[in-house]
């Protein structure tokens, strides 16, 4: 962490070594407390999980006399410098911030003996962009990414081979349109990515309880595509070795 920078909120199981790691990334102009509802839901559903909520890297204090005109209305923590931020430089600034985030996650994994497949990244808005882009920049960083009301900084050209991507969105989101999210899912499908999308009606750009509940359902019930393909491959090999003719049934 940077000198004089707030330590992250860290929740660790009281009696046992953590078996899972969740890193929750808040949105722009916010702080980790924004993610407390998601953290509580994860702790209830996964009592052996470690949950870490770090502060973003850029702090814009309220009433900061420096560049007040440029900083008005953006007080809080940001993963990237918000001053002069435009659509044309957004992806570049995200890419510049990724190494620090990845190093922080790697340090936590190393300290507690947790692998990438035991790790899930979750983010809201700008935090979702950081989680998604980090999973691509370091493909073995996380087994799951939960993106709430957020998208990639730039449309991906590849997909992380061992990461399952879950998108959760409000149908009335005015900052990140659900149409853009749906287009991204089409692109991920073309790239043979492993992704899901849940859209909640009458919800805007917010970390809503309905989306949090659905995220827990996805974590508890969604089998990664790679596991399904491995199981199907093993089944087919077994059928071939036993020389059993196909029955005509289809697995769903």
Q: Quote the beta fraction.
A: 15-25%
CATH topology: Rossmann fold
In the predicted model, the low-confidence regions spanning at least 5 consecutive residues are 66-71, 239-252
Give the overall pLDDT as a whole number: 86
Instruction: Please provide the ordered H/E string of secondary-structure elements.
Output: EEHEEHEHEHEEHEHH
According to DSSP, the number of beta strands is: 9
- CATH architecture grouping: 3-Layer(aba) Sandwich
Distance between the termini: 46 Å
Name the overall outline: globular
The domain count comes to: 1
CATH class: Alpha Beta
Structural class: alpha/beta
Oligomer kind: single chain
Helix percentage range: 25-40%
Largest sheet: 7 strands, mixed
> What gyration radius follows from the Cα positions, in whole Å?
20 Å
DSSP summary: helix tally:
7
How would you name the CATH homologous superfamily?
Alpha/Beta hydrolase fold, catalytic domain
What does this 3D model show about the protein?
- The protein has 252 residues and is α/β, with parallel strands linked by helices.
- The chain has a single domain (9-242), classed as 3-Layer(aba) Sandwich (Rossmann fold), CATH 3.40.50.
- The chain contains seven helices and nine strands; from the N terminus they run E-E-H-E-E-H-E-H-E-H-E-E-H-E-H-H.
- It has helices at 36-45, 68-71, 87-112, 126-137, 178-190, 209-221, 225-242; strands at 9-11, 20-25, 49-53, 58-60, 76-78, 119-124, 144-148, 164-170, 195-200.
- A seven-stranded mixed beta sheet has the order 1-3-2-6-7-8-9, with helices on both faces.
- Helix 1 (36-45) runs parallel beside helix 6 and helix 3 crosses helix 4.
- The longest helix is centred in the middle third of the chain and has 26 residues, at 87-112.
